[in-house]
Design brief:
By secondary structure, the chain is of the alpha/beta class. The protein has two domains: 181 residues, Thiamin diphosphate (ThDP)-binding fold, Pyr/PP domains (Rossmann fold, 3-Layer(aba) Sandwich), CATH 3.40.50.970; 127 residues, Rossmann fold, CATH 3.40.50.920. Helices cover 37% and strands 19% of the residues. A seven-stranded mixed sheet has the order 3-2-4-5-7-6-12, with helices on both faces. A five-stranded mixed sheet has the order 9-11-10-13-14, sandwiched between helices. Helix 7 crosses helix 11.
Length: 322
C-alpha cells in the first residue's frame, strides 16, 4: 500500500494502463506540460508526444478525434480540463459516441474515457464550478463515474479505460490533494458497485464525489443521536440499486446529498427509484439536499452558501428521524 493523493492515484492508473496496453493514449490541451492540475506530469517523458498528445484549443475537435480513433480500435483518454468546457463537445459525445454501438448493431464500439474535472473549487465562479453528472446519466449509452477517494480514483479509472463503452469520468477538483492508501497492484474496481462507507440503523445517506467528506462529517456530528448509514455510489450509471435498496429496507429512511443543483439532479433518480420500490417500508418521506438553482458565485462567502455542509445534513437527518 502507498499513500497517494487523489491526483497521483489517477496519474498512476493511467500510466499503468498505458504500459499494459499500447492502444491506450491521452489527448487534450496542455498535456505536454503535465495538464492544468499536474495530473499528466511526467507522462510525456515516458510515453512520448504520440501517446500524450497536445491538441489545439477546440473541445469539439478533441472529442471528434477521440471518437474516430476509438471506432478504429484505440482507447483514447480525453482530457477536457473542466467539466464546463466539455459542453463544447456535447454533440460528438452525446450524438456520436453514446449512440454508435446501438446504431451499428454492436459492430462498432467507442471505448473512450472523457475526464471532466468538476465541482466547486477555490472561487472558480460560474463557468468553472459546475457539477453536470445528471446530464450524462440521462443519455443512453454513456457510463458515468464519480470517484470520491484516491483508491477509487485509481481503481475506477483503470476500469473506465478497459470499458467497451464511452465513460464520462468526473473527478472533483477539490479532491486533487486528498490523500489515502492505494494498493498499486489492485485490480480495476467493478463499475456499478457502490461502497458502504459507514454502517447505521436510522437513515441511509446516499452521496458521491466531493460530498462524501461532508456527509461523513455530518455522520460524526450525529454521533450519539440518529445512526446514519453512508453509501458512496461511486458510479452514477449504472448505479448500485441493490445496495441502496437493501440499506433503505433496514433503515426505512433515505436522504440523498449532492453538490449539483438540486433541480433535476441525479439525486431525484435515486429518490424516485426508492420511493417507487419501497414505498410501503419507508418510515419518513425521502429527502434530497442539493445546491440552489443559481450560477456558482465567485465571492467565497457566496460560494459557501451554495455548498451543502455537514451541519445542514445532520439537521436534515434529525428532522427525518424526529
Amino acid at each position: 500500500m502507498s499513500t497517494l493523493s487523489y491526483l497521483e492515484a489517477a496519474r498512476l492508473a493511467l500510466a499503468q494502463e498505458m504500459r499494459r496496453d499500447p492502444l491506450v493514449w491521452a489527448l487534450g490541451e496542455d498535456l505536454g506540460r503535465g495538464g492544468i492540475f499536474g495530473q499528466y506530469k511526467g507522462l510525456i517523458e515516458e510515453f512520448g508526444p504520440e501517446r500524450i498528445l497536445d491538441t489545439p484549443i477546440s473541445e469539439a475537435a478533441i472529442m471528434g478525434t477521440a471518437v474516430g480513433a476509438a471506432l478504429v480500435g484505440t482507447r483514447p483518454v480525453v482530457e477536457m480540463r473542466f467539466a464546463d468546457f466539455a459542453l463544447c463537445a456535447v454533440d460528438e459525445l452525446v450524438n456520436q459516441a453514446a449512440k454508435a454501438r446501438y446504431m451499428f448493431g454492436g459492430q462498432g464500439r467507442v471505448p473512450l474515457v472523457v475526464r471532466q474535472p468538476s465541482g466547486m473549487w477555490r472561487s472558480s465562479a460560474a463557468q468553472h464550478s459546475q457539477s453536470l453528472e445528471a446530464w450524462y446519466a440521462h443519455i443512453p449509452g454513456l457510463v458515468v463515474v464519480a470517484p470520491a477517494t484516491p483508491a477509487d480514483n485509481f481503481g475506477l479509472l483503470k476500469a473506465a479505460i478497459r470499458c467497451e463503452d464511452p465513460v464520462v469520468y468526473m473527478e472533483h477538483k477539490d479532491l486533487w490533494g486528498l490523500t489515502g492508501e492505494v494498493d498499486e497492484r489492485a485490480d480495476p474496481l467493478p463499475l456499478g458497485v457502490a461502497r458502504r462507507v459507514r454502517e447505521g440503523s436510522d437513515v441511509t445517506i446516499v452521496t458521491w464525489s466531493g460530498m462524501l467528506r461532508r456527509v461523513e462529517a455530518a455522520a460524526e456530528l450525529l454521533d450519539g443521536g440518529p445512526s446514519a448509514e453512508v453509501i458512496d455510489l461511486r458510479t452514477l450509471y449504472p448505479w448500485d440499486r441493490d445496495l441502496v435498496f437493501a440499506s433503505v429496507r433496514r433503515t426505512g429512511r433515505l436522504l440523498v446529498v449532492h453538490e449539483a443543483v438540486q433541480t433535476g439532479g441525479f439525486g431525484a433518480e435515486v429518490a424516485a427509484s426508492v420511493a417507487e420500490a419501497l414505498f410501503d417500508l419507508l418510515r419518513a418521506p425521502v429527502r434530497r439536499l442539493g445546491a440552489p438553482r443559481i450560477p456558482v458565485p465567485y465571492a467565497p462567502p457566496l460560494e459557501e452558501v451554495c455548498k451543502i455542509g455537514g451541519a445542514e445534513i445532520a439537521e436534515a437527518v434529525r428532522a427525518m428521524v424526529g
